[in-house]
Structures are given as structure tokens and as C-alpha cells.
Specification:
The chain is 43% helix and 18% strand. With 627 residues, it is of the alpha/beta class. The strands form six sheets. Strands 2-1-5-4-3 form a five-stranded antiparallel beta sheet, sandwiched between helices. Strands 7-6-10-9-8 form a five-stranded antiparallel beta sheet. It has a five-stranded parallel beta sheet with strand order 12-15-18-11-19. A hairpin with a 5-residue loop joins strand 6 (223-227) and strand 7. Helix 4 (68-87) packs antiparallel against helix 8 (186-219) and helix 13 crosses helix 14 (366-375). One of its GO terms (molecular function) is sequence-specific DNA binding. This is Sigma-54-dependent Fis family transcriptional regulator. It holds the Pfam family HTH_8.
């Protein structure tokens, strides 16, 4: 707070009046008066400086080291203004947010030597009323005249303090103190204080941004280089450092440096997302590289290089878009010999690199098994790319598998490229047309074609295919690609239907209930003996998926912790037949068994969601029927 010059004799009389009579004169600044009253209530001594709280020598060293980043900056500010401090007998303190002096600049503070004041706490409860305590309490700069200070020994000079704020929080306090008896140029001193306050705040804000920037740069799988006009590296992130292998210049490590468009950028010409090979003595990087000119005004003052391994880029995209395994092999449960044999075989073949064909009826858990195999394989850290196959337009499927060219004439990655190093899961593979199947098999076997060079690039992909039908019979009849069938035939796993593992129903049902409880943060529930008997007596033509739909419905419609037989609504056998297409009651039974979930019902009836919405409208069910 900028204040007008005050008559110090009058201020001294106000101080004496308060100390002797306990009366606050109306002319005393209200913030000072409030502080005096608190100090009096604390019975703080006011004649001479009391013994202050102080850090140990070791703690002072650690304290200054902790704040080294700001001390170095304030050192520089002081050096630029040292002559003003000398002329006006000013000292300066740098104080942390808890009131401890980090460093003392120029003349002694409160007549103490530098070593004494550093590490001391100078809050109101320590030294009484001071410009430091007022500025700290009210978060504004404050000029305090000598007779307003609580300690009488300090009345010989004036003080001015300012809080250093970042995001509204006090980080530091800088304080000027003068021992000069003469009139001071307060406007000049306040201007210097406020300038230093602003400068430190901007520096701290910049450091905060810089720290976040560095964290970001070091976490991203990108090598970043800032190159000066002399092609010396001015900055690089951790990935960039790793590629340099101890060298200081890019041209010292990369053999094809002249072909990397850095010189081009230094002439003002940018390069955007270009495929570039970076060659060192020991290895080669296939990258997507951007090089941008850095300008100071209208002059090019350097170049910014952003380069990322194509393999890392694909893996990052895959994981960022959720292309990872959601289930382990042990998320599938059972105790029958049939199930244990399946689980053991899956665990064994997961460690190999063979392509796999999973066969089984709808709802048996083929997708979960594929996820589990990927997670148990050496490819677990790489992406799992799932393609739900369908017999759609060839152009759409080709773009999905092989990528396309976007509106900016840039190539977009297809599912094959995203699968590199990982697993490609073809769900309901039997629905692929022969033409698409042949093209897919050719790419998987011989490599994918580079649009620009015409050369083929080998694909490191493991294929897991799942089908409900007899794939061999379809291939023999010419309804499925023989080449793709032969490619996925390395290992075949048959998933048994639920009717062949009836004894597992109890374990599966308990597992589903536990998952439901955890997923929805609801109390656990269990099946009564009669409810379990009811479930084991059902044929479950829709297998585990159908069982799950029934259990989920019972879970949400049972108020207590025990699901009774009356809480379970079993689907009739005909719900899995085509009768639902013309029998409203059959459709409603299936709708209820799926708990009103469109996705579950689509799986149970083996139809598309579009078809279901048509029948929901036909039978007056679903959200629109409630409007």
C-alpha cells in the first residue's frame, strides 16, 4: 500500500501513548493498530529484539538449497540495483511463505550481521508489528514508518514489504529496510520494490509453466530438439538425449544428417509430418518428423525438431484409443474338466506366436478368451486391435483394414498398421467376404503395400480369429477365403457350450454377481439353493452371455442380499429361435432377460441393433414407447 509521508514525531507519540496507556490514537493506520493490539495480547517484548526462532546451520543450508531457483534470480535483480541500495542504506530480505529469512542482501537487518538474520523467522508472533507481517496478512505491499514498528530498536529506519504471489498464493515476501535517518525517496523505493515483486512473480510463473512443459516433453514418446542458427542444440528432452548417445550435435550422431530437413528449416521452410529415416552407426530410426523454423521477429533464429518412431506412434495411438486387453485368462472361471482343459491349453498356446482360431457357439466367451490370450502372451504390452467383421461394402472394409487418405491428403492408419507388434482379433470372421479375406491374408502373409514406393513391408502381427460356424465347410464351399482360413488354422481352440459344463454354472453365476457388485459399488448378493437349481435346469441355448443377462436382471430386481428363484426370469427356449420375429410375448421375454440392454439382446438373438430398434418400435417397447 502506497502511503503518504508521515510526521515521525507524531507517530512516535502515538506509539508511546499505546505502550504506556494502551490507547490507540485514531490517526494510527488501522492495520498497524490491529497488529499492535494482537502483540499486546501476546505480551511480546517491545524494547529490544527478542530471541527469534531460527533454523540450525544445517537447516539453513538445506533451506537455501530448496529455494535456490529463486535465490539465483533475486541475486541477479539485486546486482542490477546494488548502487541504489548502497546510496540509500537499504537492506533487503528474501523471506519464504512461512516467514523464514532465506537470504539477507546489503546492510544488516535490525542491526544484526548477515549470518544472524538468515534462517530466522520474522512473523508477527516473533518480532511483532512489521511491514512483513502486515504485507503477509493482507497480501498487498505495505510501507511502514519506523515508529509504527513494534520493536523500539527498529524505529531508526523505515521498511517496505511486498508479497510475491503466484495463483493468488503467497510464495515469498521481499522486504526493504532503511537505517538512513534522512528523508528517503519513497516513490523511487516503492517503484523498485514493486518492479522486483512483479519480476519475481513472472519468473515463478514461467518456472511453473516450464516444469509442466518439461514433464510433458519427457513423458511423450517424441524426441525434441531446439537447434540454434549455428546448428548447436539449445534444448532436447530425455528421449532426444537418449538418441544422442553422449554426442553434442545432431550431425555428430546421425550419418544422414544432411538429408534431415534442419538446414531447410533454418532457411525458413517448415517440414510437416514427413516420414524420415534417422541413421546412426548402430541403429536406424523410422520416424514421422516435423521440423519448424523458430523466428525472432522476422529473422529465423533456430529450428524445432519433433520426431517420433513410427512403431511408437502406432502403439501410442492404439493404447490411447483403448486398444488393450480388458480381460485375463483368469477372468474366465470354471471347475469342470472341460473348462480346465480349455484354460490350460489357452495359457500354453498364449506363450507361442501361432495364429489362433477360436470356435464356439454364440455367447460362450470367445472374445474374453481372445483378450486373455493376448494378455498372457509376450505381446501383452502391444495393442490388441479388435475388428467386428461384417459382410459390408468392400471399400469400407478395405479402409478399416488398410487405412485411407484423409481430406488433407495425409494417410490414416488402418487396423493392420495399428496392430503392428501386437494382436489382431477378428471377431465373427466368417462374415468377411472372400475378396476381403483374400486381400487380408495376402497382406498378413506377404506384407502391406507402400502406396508411394510400391514395396511391401512385412507385418509383425499375431491373428486371433473367432467364429460361430464351421469355417472349413464355408471355405470348402467357396463362401470363405481359403487363404485366410489356412492362415488362422495354426492352432484351433474349441470353446464348449454351457450345456457341456453345467457344473460350472454355480461358479460362473457367483463370478458374475461379484463383478456386478464391484462394477456398480453395490452390496454383494448370492443365489439361494432353489435359485441355483433353477439356473442349472435351464438349457442356456445362448450360453454364458444369456446366463449373464438373466443374472444381471435378477441382481437389479432383488432388493435384498439373496436372489430367490422367484426373482429369476428364465427365457423360454423359443427366445433363441426365430419366433420372436412374429411372437410379441417371445420378444418381450428375451427383452426382459437382457435387462432392457440393447447390446445384450443383440448378442442373444444374433441380430444387429438396427433390427432390434425396428422390433422395439413394432412391439411398442423401449424409450420411445414411454414418451
Amino acid at each position: 500500500m502506497i502511503r503518504e509521508r508521515r510526521n515521525k514525531d507524531k507517530l512516535a507519540s502515538y506509539y508511546k501513548k499505546f505502550m504506556e496507556d494502551g490507547v490507540v490514537d485514531p490517526n494510527v493506520h488501522p492495520w498497524v493498530a490491529e497488529s499492535w493490539q494482537r502483540c499486546a495480547a501476546r505480551k511480546l517484548p517491545h524494547e529490544t529484539m527478542p530471541k527469534l526462532n531460527k533454523l540450525s546451520k544445517e537447516e539453513i543450508v538445506e533451506h537455501q538449497k530448496l529455494h535456490e531457483f529463486v535465490v539465483q534470480y533475486v541475486d541477479g535483480l539485486y546486482e542490477q540495483n546494488k548502487q541504489h541500495f548502497n546510496v540509500h542504506n537499504l537492506s533487503m530480505l528474501l523471506i519464504d511463505e512461512e516467514g523464514y529469512v532465506i537470504k539477507n542482501y546489503a546492510l544488516p537487518f535490525f542491526q544484526r550481521i548477515i549470518e544472524d538474520i538468515q534462517g530466522m523467522r520474522v512473523l508477527e508472533e516473533d518480532v511483532g508489528t512489521s511491514s512483513i507481517s502486515v504485507a503477509r496478512e493482507h497480501k498487498v505491499p505495505f510501507l511502514m514508518f519506523g515508529p509504527e514498528m513494534w520493536i523500539k530498536d527498529s524505529h531508526s529506519g523505515d521498511a517496505c514489504s511486498a508479497p510475491v504471489l503466484v495463483n493468488g498464493k503467497i510464495r515469498y515476501i521481499i522486504s526493504f529496510f532503511s537505517l538512513d535517518q534522512n528523508d528517503l525517496p519513497y516513490d523511487m523505493i516503492l517503484s523498485l520494490l514493486l518492479t522486483m515483486k512483479y519480476s519475481i512473480e513472472q519468473h515463478l510463473q514461467m518456472l511453473e509453466y516450464w516444469n509442466i512443459y518439461q514433464m510433458t516433453m519427457n513423458e511423450l514418446p517424441v524426441s525434441v530438439y531446439w537447434v540454434g542458427p549455428d546448428e548447436q542444440i539449445k534444448y532436447c528432452n530425455e528421449n532426444g538425449v537418449n538418441r544422442l548417445e553422449g554426442k553434442e550435435k545432431l550431425e555428430d550422431i546421425f550419418l544422414n544428417y544432411e538429408h534431415i530437413p534442419i538446414k531447410k528449416a533454418l532457411k525458413g521452410l517448415p517440414t510437416h509430418r514427413r516420414e524420415i529415416t534417422w541413421i546412426t552407426q548402430d541403429r536406424t530410426y523410422e520416424d514421422i518428423t516435423t521440423v519448424l523454423p523458430v523466428k525472432a521477429g522476422n529473422e529465423v533464429d533456430g529450428a524445432l525438431v519433433l520426431t517420433m518412431s513410427i512403431e511408437d506412434l502406432k502403439t501410442t495411438i492404439a493404447h490411447a484409443t483403448g486398444y488393450s486387453s480388458r480381460y485375463s485368462l483368469y477372468s474366465m472361471v470354471g471347475e469342470t474338466n472341460e473348462f480346465l482343459a480349455l484354460q490350460h491349453k489357452a495359457s500354453r498356446i498364449a506363450r507361442s506366436d501361432n495364429n489362433i482360431l477360436i470356435q464356439g457357439e454364440p455367447g460362450t466367451g470367445k472374445q474374453r478368451l481372445a483378450h486373455g490370450i493376448h494378455q498372457a502372451s509376450p505381446r501383452a504390452a502391444a495393442p490388441l486391435i479388435v475388428v467386428k467383421c461384417y459382410n459390408g461394402p468392400s471399400e469400407e472394409l478395405e479402409e478399416e483394414f488398410f487405412g485411407a487418405i484423409d481430406h488433407d491428403n495425409q494417410p490414416t492408419a488402418g487396423k493392420l498398421e495399428l496392430s503392428l507388434g501386437g494382436t489382431l482379433f477378428l471377431d465373427e470372421v466368417e462374415k468377411l467376404s472372400v475378396d476381403i479375406g483374400d486381400k487380408l491374408a495376402d497382406a498378413l502373409k506377404n506384407g502391406i503395400l507402400n502406396r508411394e514406393t510400391g514395396a511391401r513391408k512385412k507385418l509383425n502381427i499375431r491373428v486371433i480369429a473367432a467364429c460361430d460356424s464351421n469355417l472349413k465347410r464355408l471355405a470348402d464351399k467357396g463362401l470363405f477365403s481359403k487363404a485366410l482360413y489356412e492362415l488362422v488354422l495354426n492352432t484351433v481352440i474349441r470353446v464348449p457350450p454351457l450345456r457341456e459344463r453345467v457344473k460350472d454354472i454355480e461358479v460362473i453365476a457367483a463370478h458374475i454377481l461379484a463383478e456386478m457388485s464391484a462394477q456398480h459399488s453395490l452390496p454383494p448378493k448370492k443365489l439361494s439353493p432353489r435359485a441355483l437349481q433353477l439356473l442349472t435346469s435351464c438349457s442356456w441355448t445362448g450360453n454364458i452371455k444369456q446366463l449373464q443377462g438373466v443374472i444381471e436382471q435378477a441382481f437389479f430386481h432383488t432388493p435384498g442380499g439373496v436372489i430367490e428363484a422367484d426373482n429369476i426370469k428364465l427365457p423360454s427356449d423359443r427366445t433363441m429361435e426365430k419366433s420372436w420375429k412374429y411372437d410379441k410375448d417371445a420378444f418381450i421375454a428375451a427383452w426382459k432377460s437382457a435387462g432392457g440392454n440393447i447390446s445384450k439382446l443383440a448378442g442373444m438373438l444374433d441380430v444387429s441393433r438396427v433390427t432390434l430398434y425396428r422390433y422395439l418400435k413394432k412391439y411398442g417397447l423401449g424409450p420411445k414407447a414411454k414418451e
